[in-house]
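Researcher: Next entry in the queue.
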Amino acid sequence: MKLRVRAFGLAGGVLLGLAYCIAMILSLAVGTGQSIVALKLVLPFFERSFFGVVYGLVGGFIEGFLVGAFFAWLYNKACKVIYGAAVAN
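Model: Structure for this entry, 89 residues:
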């Protein structure tokens, strides 16, 4: 089975963007900064503010899209090498 690279990237981007956004909203609501310390390692300009929510959503989407698309591309290449000719849809 061949994975669609853009569709897989889009799904990964939406999931990671929403995860970063929800983590920031929960951090703002609860008042703890522990989740922000971990997210600052991934997104250096991530701050505890409304801008941080938007930046987490956009940055997470871009990061998730790139990782998801790369994973789908790598999977398709590995299947081509393992099974020979083009992988059926």
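Model: The chain has a mean pLDDT of 83.
Researcher: Noted, moving on.
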